[in-house]
TrEMBL record, chain A:
Membership in a protein family: Belongs to the ABC transporter superfamily.
UniProt GO MF annotations: ATP binding; ATP hydrolysis activity
InterPro entries according to UniProt: AAA+_ATPase, ABC_transporter-like_ATP-bd, ABC_transporter-like_CS, Metal_Ion_Import_ABC, P-loop_NTPase
All residue ranges annotated as the ABC transporter domain in the record: 20-252
Protein name: Metal ABC transporter ATP-binding protein
The entry's keywords: ATP-binding, Nucleotide-binding, Transport
TrEMBL record, chain B:
Family stated for the protein in its record: Belongs to the ABC-3 integral membrane protein family.
Function: This protein is probably a component of a manganese permease, a binding protein-dependent, ATP-driven transport system.
GO cellular component assignments: ATP-binding cassette (ABC) transporter complex
Organism classification: Bacteria, Bacillati, Bacillota, Bacilli, Bacillales
Localization: Cell membrane
Pfam family, one: ABC-3
Membrane topology label: Multi-pass membrane protein
UniProt keyword annotation of Transport present: yes
Domain of life: Bacteria
Full protein name: Manganese transport system membrane protein MntC
């Protein structure tokens, strides 16, 4: 694990700083540490999956990196500067369950919220913002639902509205908190297409992910987390049975045959 | 009809009428956001917390003035919200329980202070107990002026910060992510609610003032799926309740304005629950019946052919 970190450190070209650098990040709720001394560096233009068991601190890592929750210590830099100065470069897709979908608003209006960060304090979104929002809705295949009250959308459609809102933010670094959770096949496909497109545009996307079976298909790099960072690096070398065993401990029900063959052992003795 | 005009020709009545309408309007507008933020009970807590604040402001200065009471009530409301925040953060209690504790604690203190004032020798303390249930009839020109300023302030704030209040009501996490000072905006919204509550206490009283925040907002939600329209409707419903409340209490002798205003708002709520398009009970019933009829019609030929097959088999 350490060797991977030092390797990325060395690889970094001095001229262009990495999209995200996390150094020694720790977070605790009450007295319980949820995240302990996590350090990693995201490479530009990669799709990065954050994997770990429930309560491993995946969402917490994302929220702390975004400055949504206070951290005990550590440093987060976005393109070489504190995230507070770089907010316009960051797009965020929270968990779908985090809001009340019975709110009196429609799909287009939610997507327009992605433009608020670019608007002045008292300015209302105008024609230009609406055009950007409609384009974003089109990209996730939701253009026909622009005027639909959000509670009338299916779970997958709601998730796509959230993605469209992040697209409308026109960011360079995206954080997505379980975008695949509980969505239909059409939405899953739409999200994956979108992720690929973002990657082609050179954007960096960090995704909290639950479905181990799709990790190898979706992500360039994978970050295994269980309170502490367990492993981080290119999916091929990092998404191994040994690393998963260490991350999930005895709780791992998923022992896929398609994993890179490596002698079981090491963390298996728990 | 003549009665309305004769009532409105009385200058005293005009003040009360105007005051109650403005109060309903501003409470309705600001109430939308507290309802959507699932803090309907916050208004009630702030109102009850205002009582000791008003009493202490009076005990310290010996003056009865809306401006001073606003400061006292505002300070008490602030302490109450911090109290609720502290309890929810540092105990296992949920917010509703914390609000219940703070609300009754402050109200108890308020009643004790009110009794102390009543038995003290301030000379001008009479009328302070009217804050419990309100007395719109005691409103005078200067009160209505204060009310107008408060109303203009609330509506201006909600118009200018509509975008901000919308996003912190819908998705505060995202709002924080794009750099909005969510904690500041939440405190500001709370402050505006305190202002609305304190402005309403004189007319409607500590016990009922929260109704003007909640009821028009909930009623408006039944008529629209758009926040902008909901806020406008809620303001209009509140204003109409205030106007109707004043009118009824003026035409029927000795009916108190505040409670009648609240009843008018509740009646509007009843109408909304029944007849709101899409969400209303009647609309839902009709929709169900339509779906059922269509289902029956579509499945009918199938059923008939099924019966025929059975007959043929026999």
């Amino acid at each position: 694990m350490n060797s991977i970190q030092t390797q990325t450190e060395a690889e970094r070209p001095a001229a262009s700083p990495a999209p995200l650098t996390v150094q020694g990040l720790s977070v605790a709720y009450q007295k319980k540490p949820v995240l302990r001394n996590v350090s990693f560096e995201a490479r530009e233009g990669e799709l990065i999956g954050v994997i770990g068991p429930n309560g491993a601190g995946k969402s917490t890592l994302m929220k702390a990196a975004l400055g949504l929750i206070p951290s005990l210590g550590g440093e987060v830099k976005v393109y070489g500067k504190p995230y507070k100065q770089q907010r316009k470069l960051i797009g965020y897709v929270p968990q779908r369950e985090s809001v009340d979908w019975d709110f009196p608003t429609n799909a287009l209006d939610v997507v327009l919220m992605g433009r608020y960060g670019h608007l002045g304090w008292f300015r209302r979104p105008g024609a230009k913002e609406k055009a950007i929002a409609m384009e974003a809705l089109g990209k996730v295949g939701m253009a026909d639902f622009a005027g639909r009250q959000i509670s009338q959308l299916s779970g997958g459609q709601q998730q796509r509205v959230f993605l469209a809102r992040a697209l409308a933010q026109d960011a360079r670094l995206y954080f997505m908190d379980e975008p695949f959770a509980g969505v239909d096949a059409a939405t899953e496909k739409a999200i994956i297409t979108l992720l690929q497109e973002l990657k082609l545009q050179g954007k960096t996307v960090i995704v909290v992910h639950h479905d181990l079976a799709t990790v190898q298909d979706y992500f360039d790099s994978v970050l295994l987390l269980n309170v502490e960072l367990q492993a981080y690096g290119p999916t091929e070398q990092t998404f191994t049975q040994q690393n998963l065993q260490r991350t999930y401990g005895g709780r791992l029900a998923f022992l896929d045959r398609s994993l890179p063959s490596q002698p079981p052992g090491g963390g298996g003795g728990e | 009809m003549d009665q309305i005009w004769s009532m409105l020709s009385d200058p005293n009545m005009q003040w009360i009428f105007l005051g109650c309408t403005l109060l309903g309007l501003s409470s309705g507008v600001i109430g939308c956001f507290s309802y959507l933020r699932k803090q309907s009970l916050m208004g009630d807590t702030l109102a009850h917390a205002a009582l000791p604040g008003i009493c202490i402001a009076f005990m310290l200065t010996g003056v009865k003035s809306i401006g001073l009471f606003l400061i006292g009530a505002g300070a008490a409301g602030l302490i109450a919200t911090f109290g609720i925040g502290y309890i929810t953060r540092h105990s296992r209690l949920k917010q509703d329980a914390a609000m219940g504790i703070v609300l009754s604690g402050f109200f108890g203190l308020g009643i004790v202070l009110l009794t102390l004032i009543q038995h003290g020798d301030y000379g001008n303390q009479s009328g302070l107990d009217k804050f419990l249930f309100g007395q719109a009839a005691s409103m005078i020109g200067s009160d209505v002026l204060t009310m107008s300023i408060v109303c203009a302030l609330l509506i201006t704030a909600c118009t200018l910060l509509f975008k901000q209040f919308k996003i912190i009501s819908f998705d505060p996490g995202f709002a924080r992510g794009i750099g909005y000072p969510v904690a500041f905006l939440e405190q500001l919204l709370m402050l505006l609610i305190v202002v609305a509550v304190v402005a309403g206490i004189q007319a409607v009283g500590v016990v009922l003032v929260a109704a003007l925040l909640i009821t028009p907002a909930v009623s408006a939600r039944y008529w629209t799926d758009r926040l902008g329209l909901m806020v406008v409707l809620s303001g209009l419903f509140g204003a109409a309740s205030g106007a109707v409340g004043t009118w009824i209490s003026a035409s029927v002798s000795n009916l108190p304005t505040g409670p009648v205003t609240v009843l008018a708002a509740t009646l509007l709520f009843g109408v909304s629950v029944l007849f709101g398009p899409k969400r209303g009970l009647v609309a839902k019933r009709l929709m169900r019946r339509k779906v059922k009829q269509r289902f029956n019609r579509e499945s009918d030929p199938l059923a008939q052919s099924h019966v025929k097959k059975k007959e043929a088999a026999l």
